[in-house]
Design brief:
Elements (H helix, E strand, L loop, with lengths): L1 H18 L5 E4 L2 E4 L1 E4 L2 E13 L3 E11 L13 E7 L5 H15 L2 H16 L9 E7 L3 E6 L2 E6 L2 H12 L6 H7 L4
Antiparallel strand pairs: 1-2, 3-4, 4-5, 5-6, 6-7, 7-8, 8-9
Length: 190
Amino acid sequence: MKHIVYTVIILSVIALISVTPKVNGAEIEGVYFENTYETAGIRMKIQGTGLFRYLGFIRAYVGALYLEEGSSVESVLSDKPKRLEVEYFYALKGEDFGITTNKVISENTNALTLEKIRPQIDYHNSLYEDVHPGDRYSLTYIPGRGTELALNGRTKGIIKGADFASALFSMWLGESPMNEPFKKQLLGLK
């Protein structure tokens, strides 16, 4: 009888451990994102996670938005630290990222600013590589430093300018984002 009680207790503990959520992060569609990100002495906390559906039904990628603690979602495109991590479910060609970047930035940026930041956009687009399922791009903006593009934790380049960062992040968080439900999820407005 004692063995049965011990077995039940052990199985109960194992079951409890296996269903306990990760308290230091977020999981969406089986992809895990850390709860915080720290760089250059700046600590950012996850604001929200989202699933980007292409054509409304194809699971293209998941993402997580990080903001400095105390930042509001209303000022997300201002000159404040922010980070976006995106993990892909499908392979994509590097040159396709540049085509989409040009199109969506032009929909969210006035002509004068677009002309001014064109060199930064072109340089940024030249950094993209092909991605495979499970690859993760990140964009991290630090005021005075610039926007770092990284693939799987490896820095591809840093592009200076708060106006460039605002235009780039507007692709997901601006007035005309690529996907409105994804924007709301990232901002925690689901």
